[in-house]
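Appendix B. Chain record.
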Amino acid sequence: MAHLYAAADVGYPPAGGARGALVLGEGPLFERITGTWVAMVDEVAPYEPGQFYKRELPSVRAVLSGLDELPDLLLVDGFVDLDPTGTAGMGRYVHNEFGLTVIGVAKTPFRTATHAVEVCRGSSQRPLHVTAAGIAVDEAAALVRHLAGPHRIPEALRAVDRLSKGLPPAV
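Structure tokens predicted for this chain:
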């Protein structure tokens, strides 16, 4: 059985609702994007600091339900756990519900996420903040460091971000 590697993100169109997006990648380093999937969700929970999963999880569920099989690894834009004691972030909810290995890659720090491993990519001095479930965080950080793409943001996350905004995944 072939392994599936995916990255997911959620965008919020001006007209309302949420657009869950997913890109599939070749290999765990996402050497090439091999497929895309989008699912719209009409109802979106209001924003609550530290409760972002309430807004994003329904869209991630919707986009994962469109796949014939679940990925072996899922990258998400955000945190798996919000603190070292394991307070669940969106990635942990996905891991618990689907049993997936999830790597959270956040662009900005969260005040309580002191356990996140900082990873600098490309020539950027601004780190990404890596958390994980189903894989050791140091192993996850090494994988993020080597993901395809020369810039701070790995190509898989850049592509899924664009797709979640209704744009083509590549320029």
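Further analysis of this model is presented in Appendix C.
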